[in-house]
Write a structure and sequence with these properties.
With 142 residues, the protein is α+β, with helices and mostly antiparallel strands. It contains 4 helices and 8 strands; from the N terminus they run ααβββββαββαβ. Strands 1, 2, 3, 4 and 5 form a 5-stranded mixed beta sheet that branches. Strands 7-6-8 form a 3-stranded antiparallel beta sheet, with helices on one face. The longest helix has 16 residues. The chain starts with a helix and ends with a strand.
Length: 142
């Protein structure tokens, strides 16, 4: 567990559902993650007295924050009292983001192998290419 704790704090590390579940229990906060593409809400540590809401774009999580007018980000509120109406408002925001296609469809987006220039389709294509060639340096194809 300590090795995972050190790893997740590095700049190159990023987590997903397992880490959200661990953090929600460790900090005793309900974490609600809204997937912009599907509007699915995943809830971790449901029933805790405090909650935070994350917007998942398919490759990245962003926290929903309440920002006081003209203040710097350190004054943002990101943890709220558990409140179902706040979750409804967050879902409405995600519906607007969905309409603007603010998500990455990881199953069908084009990925460029930066080692050889091959363009593959989605995570599955990148995984297959990596297993065949040993290439692991990928980027988004334009």
């Amino acid at each position: 567990m300590r090795a995972t704790g050190r790893w997740i704090q590095t700049e190159d590390a990023w987590g997903g559902q397992i880490e959200l579940d661990i953090f929600s229990r460790h900090f005793d906060v309900e974490i609600c993650s809204i997937d912009v593409q599907t509007l699915r809400v995943d809830r971790y540590n449901e029933g805790a007295k405090d909650m935070c809401i994350l917007v998942y774009s398919g490759i990245h999580y962003d926290a929903i924050a309440l920002s006081p007018f003209n203040s710097s980000p350190e004054f943002d509120t990101k943890v709220f009292s558990a409140n179902s109406s706040l979750l409804v408002q967050a879902n409405t925001l995600c519906q607007k983001l969905q309409e603007k296609h603010y998500f990455t469809d990881t199953a069908s987006f084009s990925i460029l192998c930066n080692d050889c220039g091959t363009i593959v389709k989605g995570e599955k294509g990148a995984t297959e290419h990596a297993s065949i060639t040993g290439h692991y340096n990928f980027g988004e194809a334009s």
